[in-house]
Design a protein that fits this description.
- The chain contains seven helices and eight strands; from the N terminus they run βββαββββαβααααα.
- With about 220 residues, the chain is α/β, with parallel strands linked by helices.
- It starts with 6 loop residues before the first strand and ends in a 10-residue tail after the last helix.
């Protein structure tokens, strides 16, 4: 797959990564704005105090707003694994989308051309590609239920989910442990945690904790 060259449109909203941190995560977002150009203006507005490293338009156009070595202001409060300052440890990619429609093919194709280079430059494994909602459960819901995580997984651009049948019973403490082991470590209640895991893996699911909620988090040896 060929690489993609971004259009440089630099934002003033960035700073040094704290304590010598290096990117170990890539956080995917949607803009929730009316257009990519409106998002570009906001991400480069010093009064907004937000930014990201990259923005991808619905048509596939790619802008770079912050150099990868710098700390963009895209993640905010949250946690993934042992990382609490996600901005210092991540690359942020914004996808122009209002959150209620699918991500167009040209946009996904550009994302798939962008990710391998970032992952190679910073030695980020597929499991390090996460959604904003993964690290900020209850506070954020992007890239949302219409994002095609399975597509990235099949290309080795996101961590692969499990496929084994879930346990016959559904112990909430085991679900929380499996979710924590997968990276969902933000301090939230059981309902919020379940919603975050479902948003990533089972966005159409409703109701109480079910065996199917365990499936993407591991394999049957963990609950038998």
């Amino acid at each position: 797959m060929s690489t993609v060259t971004p259009i440089r449109h630099l934002s003033p909203n960035f700073g040094p990564r704290r304590d010598g941190a290096r990117p170990g995560l890539i956080v995917l977002h949607y803009t929730a704005m009316t257009s990519a150009h409106a998002a570009l203006e906001r991400l480069c507005d010093p009064l907004a105090e937000v930014s990201a490293h990259y923005l991808i338009c619905e048509t596939g156009t790619l802008w770079q707003m912050v150099d990868e070595g710098q700390r963009a202001w895209h993640a905010g409060a949250g946690q993934w694994g042992a990382i609490t300052d996600v901005n210092s440890h991540s690359i942020g990619i914004e996808l122009a989308n209002t959150g209620d429609h699918p991500f167009p093919e040209p946009q996904m194709a550009t994302l798939e051309r962008l990710l391998p280079g970032i992952m190679a430059r910073w030695s980020i494994p597929p499991a390090g590609v996460i959604g904003h909602s993964d690290m900020a459960p209850g506070r954020k819901c992007d890239p949302g239920p219409r994002f095609d995580w399975l597509r990235l997984e099949r290309m080795g651009l996101a961590g692969r989910r499990g496929y084994d049948a879930g346990p016959g019973d559904v112990p909430a403490d085991l679900f929380r442990q499996l979710a924590r082991d997968a990276g969902f470590t933000a301090p939230v209640d059981d309902e919020t945690l379940l919603a975050a895991v479902r948003l990533r893996y089972r966005p159409q699911a409703t109701g109480p904790l079910a065996p199917e909620d365990f499936t993407p988090l591991g394999h049957s040896a963990l609950w038998t």
